[in-house]
């Protein structure tokens, strides 16, 4: 191979370029290994042990055959290298492991658990479409929507939310992932973005899933009456959460109950621009009806925040691919959000970048 094919024939540049390709080719192996650790119950076994745990103790508490110890050691090495375990070698030169802060996010009894999101994203339901992404790029849009997304062309023409109603196991996993995320975001929002909710007497969490966000907001603001609107298969059977949280089964494209404020957490990025404008128009009607002059509160990623580091920007772009492959949505820049808001008839907005990769956006009629 000559230097033309590589652009540079300096030895270290060649090796670095090759390793860069390897790093990205093998990223999925790292992800799948972490998934395996979660499925084995490794975070719980490490977390339950009094102090850092050794390999033999881990093998026994996971109930694995002792012959698998050398293999588990190799899994632990990668999971530790990926930042989920700390390695302690001080005690008698025996390797012992403890959970890092990211590792504690994989604990199933952690209310902020992100393991369910990891399991959902790495479930074949969501990974299979990625094998067909290039075919989707080459295919023309068809009238019956079969090829609207890579997800729908992989799953017999079913669009994402339609599919959810047919797969209770995956739907429960996904709803659990959303609910856990809402637990943490609600706490941060109540702490860091409290002013957005002050003075709000009634709130509708539109497409609010199983209601964790609404429950936490209602708890922080006992005078507020909260309604969770979501599809029937998500909210049917859920008991109203205390005095001031109730569930309504419905379609946000049809009607949204009137309220002082409407919350859209992780909704805009699920939909294309046209659908977002439709949802926002319904929200505008909900917060301006009955003489109200309310607001729409959006929690979503905003691309282009220069203070985000490279890793987090990569996370945003990966989410954008997930939205493109699974749904018809996208992650948006401030300019793209502003266009949606003005097209839906709103007059102003304020972005508060208090949630890492995500931001709290207040939109005013
Ligand atoms: C990404 S989840 C977000 C859930 C919740 N807001 C959260 O952040 O945890 C999107 C939600 O939209 C709901 N959804 C999809 N289409 C809907 C519709 N037409 N009307 C109401 N809810 C809908 C789904 O059932 C799902 O719960
Ligand atoms: O990672 C996801 C995946 C989805 C998704 C994929 C397929 C379906 O049938 C439904 C949903 O949706 C997500 C989402 O709405 C979100 O806010 C974050 C992540 C994901």
TrEMBL record:
One of its GO terms (biological process) is methylation. Gene3D superfamilies: Vaccinia Virus protein VP39 (3.40.50.150), Winged helix-like DNA-binding domain superfamily/Winged helix DNA-binding domain (1.10.10.10). Residues 130-347 form the O-methyltransferase C-terminal domain. Transmembrane segments: none annotated. Residues 22-108 form the O-methyltransferase dimerisation domain. Pfam families: Dimerisation (PF08100), Methyltransf_2 (PF00891). The active site is at residue 269. The keyword Transferase applies. Keywords: Methyltransferase, S-adenosyl-L-methionine, Transferase. GO terms for molecular function: O-methyltransferase activity; protein dimerization activity. This is Uncharacterized protein. It comes from Linum tenue.
């Amino acid at each position: 191979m000559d230097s033309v094919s590589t652009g540079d024939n300096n030895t270290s540049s060649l090796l670095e370029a090759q390793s860069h390709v390897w790093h990205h080719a093998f990223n999925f192996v790292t992800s799948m290994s972490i998934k395996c650790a979660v499925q084995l119950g490794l975070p719980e076994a490490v977390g339950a042990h009094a102090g850092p745990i050794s390999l033999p103790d881990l093998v026994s508490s996971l109930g694995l055959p002792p012959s698998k110890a050398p293999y588990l050691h190799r899994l632990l090495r990668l999971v530790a290298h990926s930042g989920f375990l700390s390695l302690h070698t001080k005690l008698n030169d025996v390797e012992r492991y403890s959970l890092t802060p990211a590792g504690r996010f994989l604990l199933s009894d952690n209310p902020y658990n992100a393991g369910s999101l990891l399991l959902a994203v790495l479930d074949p339901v969501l990974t299979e479409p990625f094998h067909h992404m290039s075919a989707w790029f080459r295919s023309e849009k068809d009238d019956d929507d079969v090829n609207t997304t890579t997800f729908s062309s992989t799953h017999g023409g079913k669009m994402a939310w339609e599919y959810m109603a047919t797969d209770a196991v995956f739907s429960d996993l996904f709803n659990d992932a959303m609910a856990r995320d809402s637990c943490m975001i609600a706490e941060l929002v109540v702490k860091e973005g409290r002013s957005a909710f002050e003075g709000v007497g009634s709130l509708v969490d539109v497409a609010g899933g199983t209601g964790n966000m609404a429950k936490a907001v209602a708890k922080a603001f006992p005078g507020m009456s909260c309604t969770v609107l979501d599809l029937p298969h998500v909210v049917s059977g859920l008991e109203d959460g205390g005095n001031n949280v109730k569930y309504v089964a419905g379609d946000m494209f049809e009607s949204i109950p009137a309220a002082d404020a409407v919350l859209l957490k992780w909704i805009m990025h699920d939909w294309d621009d046209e659908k977002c404008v439709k949802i926002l128009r319904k929200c505008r009607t909900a917060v301006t009806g009955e003489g109200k002059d309310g607001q729409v509160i959006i929690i979503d990623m905003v691309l282009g925040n220069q203070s985000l580091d490279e890793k987090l920007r990569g996370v945003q772009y990966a989410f954008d691919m997930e939205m493109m492959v699974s749904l018809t949505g996208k992650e948006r820049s401030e300019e793209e959000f502003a266009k949606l808001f003005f097209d839906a008839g709103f007059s102003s907005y304020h972005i508060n970048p208090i949630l890492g990769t995500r931001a709290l956006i207040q939109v005013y009629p």
